[in-house]
Design a protein that fits this description.
Elements lengths: L4 E6 L5 H14 L6 E4 L8 H14 L4 E6 L5 H13 L4 E5 L20 H11 L4 E6 L10 H13 L4 E6 L3 H13 L6 E5 L5 H9 L8 H9 L3 H22 L3 E5 L5 H9 L6
Parallel strand pairs: 1-2, 1-8, 2-3, 3-4, 4-5, 5-6, 6-7, 7-8
Length: 283
């Protein structure tokens, strides 16, 4: 990545109405010239088929570069090999390589004889089979939820980079200092690939509570939390969330980030408002 990029994440819709809404959101965001859009997997690869279908449709219909999420938990090497071949055949050569969440009902990852134990193993496998693929991995500015030791966490991340990962895209955060500290930790540990900040504005009280409950969720800075808890409606919460995220974007671009990655929740309106506030979109 040699230039500043904007990218978006979407998830596979479950109904025809949701699919139409997703398509409309992507069409709305397309004029912002995204470097790519990414499509997620469900826990344990539960949305695998719908992810593959959506990735192919977006590639063919909207002509926007697509990054396909690929998780390795509960998957064999042969299964992953088939998926990679399918992607390569349709010209999708960008993968976000993740271990992935466990399938529902499991507390420990199933150990397959021909499987993957960690995301670094998936990265190495992709690069071995298709060296021309571009591979991204996840970063956790506030610390990985299963690795409280930040020194060990950085060692694990370095292993993914050494396995061939080309860039890091972070989980969402609301405090830019956490991102800056994370970047500095990476550099100290010899990680010099681009580190793209992941952002998502708070838009509803329900969403606010859900983000706080998620194991990969973020801590709310006291200043933001005070504003959100005093809000009397979702409309007010959305205004607060957009304003806060817009300020994050302003400060991050001034800091010199290589790009911005937005977790859209399959909606375009709030993202467009944030971009407009920072003169990153003028229509």
């Amino acid at each position: 990545m040699n230039k500043f990029t904007i990218s978006y994440e979407f998830f596979p819709p479950k109904t025809p109405e949701a699919k139409q809404a997703l398509h409309e959101a992507i069409v709305q965001l397309k004029p912002t010239n995204p470097a790519y859009i990414s499509v997620t997997y469900g826990a344990g690869g539960s949305t695998r088929e719908s992810t593959h279908q959506l990735v192919q449709e977006l590639k063919q219909e909207l002509h926007i570069p697509v990054v396909a999420h690929l998780t390795c938990v509960a998957s064999s090497r042969e299964e992953i090999r088939v998926i990679l071949r399918q992607y390569n055949e349709i010209g999708i050569t960008d993968i976000m390589a993740l271990r992935g969440d466990l399938p529902k009902g499991l507390t420990n990852p199933p150990m397959l004889q021909d499987g993957f134990e960690h995301a670094k193993d998936l990265v190495a496998f992709i690069k071995e089979i298709f060296p021309h693929f571009r591979v991204g991995v996840a970063g956790f500015p506030e610390g990985h939820p299963t690795t409280p030791n930040r020194l060990i966490e950085m060692n694990y991340l370095k292993e993914k980079i050494d396995a061939g990962a080309d860039y890091i895209c972070t989980q969402l955060f609301f405090d830019n200092n956490m991102y800056i500290d994370f970047v500095e930790r990476c550099r100290i540990n010899g990680i010099f690939v681009p580190i793209i900040p992941g952002l998502m504005p708070v838009t509803t009280r329900k969403g606010m509570e859900r983000m706080a409950e998620l194991s990969l969720g973020s801590r709310y800075p006291a200043k933001l939390l005070a504003q959100l808890t005093q809000a009397d409606s979702d409309e007010t919460i959305e205004k607060i969330g957009i304003a806060w995220c817009a300020e994050q974007v302003k400060a991050l671009t001034e800091y010199g980030v290589p790009g911005l990655h937005f977790y859209t929740l399959n909606r375009a309106e709030t993202i467009l408002k944030i971009l407009k506030k920072n003169d990153l979109y003028d229509k």
